[in-house]
C-alpha cells in the first residue's frame, strides 16, 4: 500500500543517513527489493525468490520491533509506566474526548465486530494496575514530593557497586510506580507482605533484565541483581522500613480509590462501545497482576462463581452498598454481569447500533464522556467520568458522588424514558438536559437504556 511504501522509504533513508560509509547502491537495492521493483529482464523464478525473501523479512520485522520497543525501550522509558503497554505510545498521555468519539464512530461504521480488550496474557500490567498508575499524571506535585521523600528515606538501603549505585534512579522510580499500582487492597499481614515482596522482586528482575542497561538475560550482572533483590527486601521489611510502608500505604489510598473509579469507567466503556468485549481470566474482580508470569497465576473461579450467585439485583441501595465496599471487587463483577446481561438481551443494539457523542454543559463538563447508541427504536446511553483526580481534588480526592458534579448536565434531545440498568432507576430528561448529579448519584458510572423513543 501507499502507507507501507512510505514506511519502507523512510526506514531506508534513515538507515542510509546513519551509515554514510556504506555504498548508496546497497540501500537502493534493499528498497527496490522490499517494494518489489523488478530490474529489467528479471526472470520469473528470480522474482519468486525475491518475493519469498520479502515475506521472510516481513515475518522478522514484527519480533524485532517487539523485542526492541516493547521488551526493551518500554522498560527503560519510565516516565509514566501505565502508558508503556503492548501496542501503546508512551508519548501520548491519553486522547481528547473528540478523538475518542471519532474513533468509535468510525468503528461502529467500519469494524463493529473488532475486539475490545484491556488485559491479556501479554499485558505488562493488568487493567486495574494501569488505572491506578494513570492517576499519578493528575497529581504530579503530590507524586513528585512523595518520590523525593521516599528517595531520601531509602537512601541508606542502596548499595554502591563498582559500576554505579543499585538501584539506579530509573529502576528505583519504576519500582515506586509498580508499588503504587500493585499494592494490596487491604493492609497486608506478614505472610501476605512476604508473598508480595517475592512478586515484586521477580517483577523487577524481569524488568531490569529486559531493559538491558545494568543487567540482561543474556549477560546477567549477578551483583546488580542481588543488590536489587536486597533493596526490595529491605524496602518492604516492616521492621526496617515502617515509616516508608506507612507513607506508601497512605499515598496509595488516593490512587487505589480513584483508580477503582477509573477501572469501573473503562469496564463500562469496554462493554458498551462498538466492538466485542474480551475479559481476560481473573479480571472479573480487581486484579493487580504485573507482567507474565504474574498475570498467569491460577484464578479462583470457585470464589467468582460463589460471588456471582450472591450478587444482588440492580437497585439503588444494592449498588450503593457494593460501591461502598468496593475493595472486595464485587462492584466490578456486578457491573460486568449487568452489562453482559444487557448485551445478551439486546444483541442487535450493541452489535449494530450507531454511535453519537453526547455533549455536556456546566462546571464539570470536561470530566465526563457520554455517548448514545441507537438501533430499531431502542437506545443506550453510556456515561463515565474522566480525569477523576481533577474532579475530586476539591474534596481531597474522595470518591465522586452526586455533589461532585454541581450543575453539569448532558444535553440530550428527545423524550425517551430511560432505565439506569446498574441501579434500576427510572430517569427522565429534564428541560435543561440530564443532570449528572442525578445520573451519577449512586455510582460513578451509568448506562441508560430505553425500549423506544
Main features:
about 450 residues; alpha+beta; 13 strands
Question: How would you describe what is shown here?
Answer:
With 453 residues, this protein is an alpha+beta fold. It has helices at 2-18, 24-34, 44-70, 97-110, 127-134, 140-153, 169-182, 190-211, 222-235, 242-272, 301-310, 316-324, 330-345, 347-352, 388-392, 436-439, and strands at residues 115-117, 159-161, 164-166, 276-278, 356-357, 360-361, 368-375, 378-385, 409-410, 417-420, 425-428, 434-435, 446-450. A six-stranded antiparallel sheet has the order 5-7-8-13-10-11. The chain starts with a helix and ends with a strand.
Gyration radius over CA: 26 Å
N-to-C span: 45 Å
Low-confidence stretches: none
Order of neighbouring strands in the sheet with most strands = 5-7-8-13-10-11
Alpha-beta content class = alpha+beta
Q: Report the sheet with the most strands, covering strand number, pairing sense and barrel closure.
A: 6 strands, antiparallel
Order of helices and strands: HHHHEHHEEHHHHEHHHHEEEEHEEEEHE
- What percentage of amino acids are in beta strands? 5-15%
Mean model confidence by pLDDT: 94
Helix content: 40-55%
Instruction: Compute the number of strand runs.
Output: 13
Helix run count: 16
Spatial shape: globular
Amino acid at each position: 500500500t501507499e502507507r507501507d511504501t512510505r514506511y519502507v522509504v523512510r526506514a531506508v533513508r534513515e538507515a542510509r543517513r546513519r551509515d554514510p560509509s556504506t555504498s548508496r547502491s546497497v540501500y537502493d537495492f534493499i528498497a527496490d527489493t522490499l517494494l518489489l521493483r523488478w530490474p529489467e529482464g528479471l526472470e520469473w523464478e528470480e522474482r519468486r525468490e525475491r518475493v519469498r525473501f520479502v515475506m521472510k523479512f516481513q515475518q522478522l520485522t514484527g519480533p524485532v520491533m517487539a523485542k526492541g520497543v516493547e521488551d526493551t525501550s518500554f522498560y527503560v522509558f519510565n516516565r509514566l509506566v501505565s502508558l508503556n503497554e503492548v501496542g501503546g505510545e508512551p508519548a501520548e498521555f491519553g486522547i481528547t474526548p473528540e478523538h475518542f468519539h471519532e474513533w468509535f464512530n468510525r468503528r461502529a461504521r467500519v469494524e463493529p465486530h473488532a475486539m475490545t480488550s484491556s488485559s491479556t496474557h501479554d499485558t505488562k500490567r493488568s487493567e486495574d494496575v494501569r488505572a491506578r498508575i494513570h492517576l499519578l499524571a493528575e497529581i504530579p506535585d503530590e507524586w513528585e514530593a512523595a518520590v523525593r521523600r521516599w528517595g531520601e528515606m531509602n537512601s541508606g538501603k542502596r548499595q554502591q557497586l563498582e559500576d554505579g549505585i543499585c538501584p539506579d534512579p530509573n529502576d528505583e522510580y519504576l519500582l515506586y510506580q509498580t508499588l503504587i499500582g500493585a499494592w494490596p487492597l487491604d493492609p497486608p499481614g506478614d505472610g501476605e507482605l512476604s508473598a508480595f515482596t517475592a512478586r515484586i522482586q521477580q517483577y523487577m528482575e524481569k524488568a531490569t533484565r529486559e531493559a538491558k542497561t545494568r543487567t540482561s538475560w543474556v549477560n546477567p550482572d549477578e551483583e546488580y541483581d542481588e543488590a536489587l533483590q536486597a533493596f526490595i527486601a529491605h524496602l518492604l521489611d516492616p521492621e526496617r522500613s515502617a515509616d516508608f510502608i506507612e507513607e506508601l500505604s497512605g499515598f496509595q489510598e488516593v490512587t487505589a480509590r480513584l483508580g477503582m473509579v477509573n477501572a469501573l469507567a473503562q469496564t463500562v466503556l469496554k462493554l458498551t462501545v462498538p466492538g466485542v468485549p474480551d475479559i481476560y481470566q481473573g479480571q472479573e474482580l480487581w486484579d493487580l497482576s504485573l507482567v507474565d508470569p504474574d498475570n498467569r497465576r491460577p484464578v479462583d473461579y470457585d470464589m467468582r462463581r460463589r460471588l456471582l450467585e450472591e450478587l444482588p439485583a440492580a437497585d439503588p441501595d444494592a449498588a450503593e452498598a457494593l460501591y461502598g465496599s468496593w475493595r472486595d471487587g464485587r462492584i466490578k463483577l456486578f457491573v460486568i454481569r449487568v452489562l453482559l446481561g444487557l448485551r445478551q438481551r439486546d444483541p442487535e443494539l450493541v452489535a449494530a447500533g450507531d454511535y453519537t457523542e453526547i455533549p455536556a454543559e456546566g462546571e464539570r463538563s470536561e470530566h465526563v464522556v457520554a455517548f448514545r447508541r441507537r438501533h430499531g427504536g431502542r437506545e443506550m446511553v453510556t456515561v463515565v467520568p474522566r480525569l477523576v483526580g481533577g474532579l475530586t481534588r476539591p474534596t481531597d480526592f474522595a470518591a465522586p458522588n452526586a455533589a461532585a458534579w454541581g450543575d453539569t448536565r448532558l444535553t440530550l434531545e428527545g423524550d425517551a424514558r430511560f432505565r439506569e440498568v446498574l441501579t434500576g432507576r427510572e430517569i427522565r430528561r429534564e428541560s435543561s438536559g440530564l443532570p449528572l448529579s442525578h445520573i451519577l448519584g449512586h455510582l460513578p458510572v451509568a448506562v441508560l437504556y430505553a425500549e423506544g423513543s
